[in-house]
Amino acid sequence: MRVGLELLELARAAGARVIFVVGVGRDVGKTTALRAIYAAACRCEISAGLASIGRDGETLRGEARGKPRLWLEPRTSFVTARDALPRTPAVEISKLSSLRSPAGELLYARVVSSGFYELVGAPTASGVAEIVEELGTSSEMVIVDGAVDRVAALAGSDAAIVVACGAAAAPTPAEAVDEIATLVARLRVARFDPAAPALFLEGALTASDAAALIAARESRQIVVRDPTQIAVSGRAGARALSALRVRCLRPLHVIAATTAAIGPQRSFEPRTFARAVAVATALPTFDVYAATRAA
Amino acid sequence: MKAPSLLDDATARVLGFDWLTSATAPVSPYGEPLFAQLRPFAAGEETQAAARAQAIAAFAGACDADAFDTLRAALNDVPDVNAGVARAAMGDVLDDPSFLELRRFCATIERLDAVLGARGVAVPLSNRAVRTVADALTPGGRDGSGFYLAGEFDRALDAARDRLARAQAELDAARGRESERVARELGRDEIAGDEFIVMRTDLHAPLPAGVRVLREAPTYVLCALELGEASFAALARRDAAADEVGAAEARVRERLSSIVREHAAGLGAAADALGELDVLAGAAHFAKVYGCTAPAITPEPVVEFEAARFLPLEVELAAAGRSFTPLDLELRDVAVLTGPNMGGKSVSLQTCGFVALCAAFGLPAPARRARSGIFEQIAWLGMGREREADGLLSSFAREVVELKAVLTRSSRRLLVLADEFARTTTPHEGKALMIALLERLRKLRACGMLATHLAGIAAAAGVAHFAVRGLREIPPCGPAQDVDAALAALAEAMDYRIAEVGPEDQPRADAIALTALLGVDREFVDSAYRALSQ
Q: What is the pTM of this model?
C-alpha cells in the first residue's frame, strides 16, 4: 500500500489540481500525509507546488512552534518567508509576494538542489487563494498543509480536501472519531437546491442560531456561503446538521481521511481506529504510519 | 503633501486638499517620502512654482495614456532597495531576495529610461552604478522577474554543485536500497516517512536489521529506519559536498555584495532620481487625466481663471452622470459674490480656492487658463466649517472666533473665501460686519471673495461685485415627492456662470421658485409670493 499514491490518485480522479490537507487538531499527521502525497507526486514526475498556512499553521493563535522542514526535490515550487529561506542550498526565487506572514514577506521559490526547506504561508484565506493560484501557474499539483478555517478560499473550486485525524486530537478513540465525523459532515455540506425554499445566512451559522432554528422547527434549507461558515462543532454541530437542512453556496470536496494512531501523549489501536473513522466518515481512510487503508 | 501653514483643517476639507493629495500621489516607495515632504511654495518663490507647474505640464504633454500606464505600473512594482543597499554599504552580505530586488530595481530604471527617452522626456535615471550592478547580477536570470545564484557567477560553484548532486544521488541510492530491503522483509510496498507502524499481527519474524523501535504497544510497534553503513558513508560525503556548495555560494554573495557596496552612492542617487520622477509623474498624471494647464504665477494677490473646475465635485457629478459647468473669474483684490440659492456660489469659492491651492504647490490647475498669486494662507469662513462644531459656542460666535484667528495671524499674502459669513445674525448687522471684513482685507492687501445673499455690500464697500447668473427660467414643478427630478430640472435651468455686475444690481435668490420646485404645496408658495409683493 502506497498511501501517498492512493491519495494522489483519488485527487486526480476527482479532477483536482489542488490538495488541501487539513486536520482536526495538532499532531494528527497532516504533514506526514502531505509528505506522502508529495513523495508520490515526485515519483510520478508530477511537478508539485507546496504551501502552508502561517508559519506552522497555528501562528495566528499565538502557538507558533517549529515545524519539521520538508525535504524537497528539484523542480518543486514552494512558498516560504524571506527570513525562513535557507542561505544554502540556493533556490531560484521566482517572485516576491506582497503578502506577509508573521515570519516576514512571502516569496515563491523553486528548488534547484534538493534540501530541507520550510513552508510558510499566508495568514488569510484570500492570501491562501492567491498563493494557490500563483503556484498553480508553475505546478501540475499544488499541495497545501492547511487549516480548516482557511479552506474557505478554495470553496467552489475543484480542490480536493484530505482530513487528518489522530490520537492527539482527543482523549479516547470514540471522541476522536466524533471529532472527525462532525468536521467531515460540516465540510461535506451539499450545495443548496435553488428550487426549494431557503433561508440565506449573511454570516456564520452559530450554535445559538442553530438552537433557535431547531426550536422554531425550521424546515427550509439553511444556506451559508461555504461550509467553513458553519461555526458549530462537537455534538452541537452533529445535532445541528441532523436536525436542520444546512446547505451552502460553494461546496467543498472532501476525498479522504487519514489517521495517525500515535500521538505525543497517547496512542490508539491503529486498525480499530482507522476502521472507526472510515465508518463514521464514509470516506476512503488511510493510516499514514501503518501504510494501510481501512477496509 | 502637507500644508499646515497654508490651510487649516476645515479649509483643507472644504477645498478638497485630501482629494488633491490623493490625485497627485506617487506610487513607489521612492516617491512617497519625497511627496510627504512637499510643502507649498512661499511668497517670493513664484518663479520656482511656475517652473514646476510648467515641467509637470510638459511631462503630461509628452506622455500619452499608454505611457502613463507603463510608467505607473513600473513604479508601482519597483521594490525598495534602500535598506539592502544601506546594509551592503555597512559591510553586510546580502541575501538572494535582496539581489532579486536589486535586479528588478535596475531593470525598472532601464525600462523607464527607454519609455521616457522614446517620448523625448530627458529624465536620465540610470548611471554607472546601476549599469554595473545590473551587469553583475545578470547571470541570476535573463529577465528581472527572478533570481538564482547560478553557476555562471562562479565556475567553482558549478563544480561544487555537480559534486553535491552526485553525492546526493549516492546517498539516495544507498538509502533506497536499505528502505527497499526493509519493506521487502516486512512484506510492504514501501517505507514512507521517518516513522512507521508495524502491526504485531503482520510480524512473523524479528524486525529486519536496521529498524529501530521507538515505541511498543500491545498491537503494534512504532519504528524508524536507521542509517546503514553505506548510507552513513554516503551521508558524510553528501554533507561535505553540501558544505562546499554553501561556501561557494557564500563567496558569490560576498562578491556581489561588495559590488553593491562600491556603488552604493550611485544606487542611492538613482533611487533619489526615481523618487523625483515618481512625484513628477504623479502630478503629470493628474494634469493629464483632468486636463490641467500650468497657471501663470504672479506676485500679485489675484486668482483669475477661464473654464476652471472644482475637481472633487466634477468627479462626483460625473459619477452621477452629470457635468460641471466650467467657471470664469477675475478676482483681484476683494469682491462680493451673490446669486440664487443652489446657484453654485459655494462651488465658485471652492474653485477659486482649488486653483490657488494648485498654484501654491506648483501644480497645473484644472482650467483652460489660470493666473494666481502664491498665498501664505488660504482661509475659508462661514458655511462649510460646521464639522468643527463646538458645543459651547453659537454658530455666530464660532464664526467670529475663526475670523479673529485669521485677522490675528495677519498673513502677508492672504486669500479669504467667505461663504455667507455672519448669516446667523440680523441682516443689518451681518451686512455691517461683511463691509468691515472687506475693508480690513483691503487694508491687509489681501485677496478675498465673500458670497452672500445680502444686498448692497459691494457698493457700500466699494469692491467688485460678481453674481452667479441664476435660473434661465423657472422649470415646471414635478410630482411633489420627486426631489431627484426637481434637482435635475433645476440643474438644467440654472446658469452657473459668474459675471461681474453693476453696483445697483440686486442679488437674486429665486428662493420661492425653488420652494415650489422642490414640492412645497401651491397655497404656501402663493402666500409667499403675496408677502413678497407687499
A: 0.82
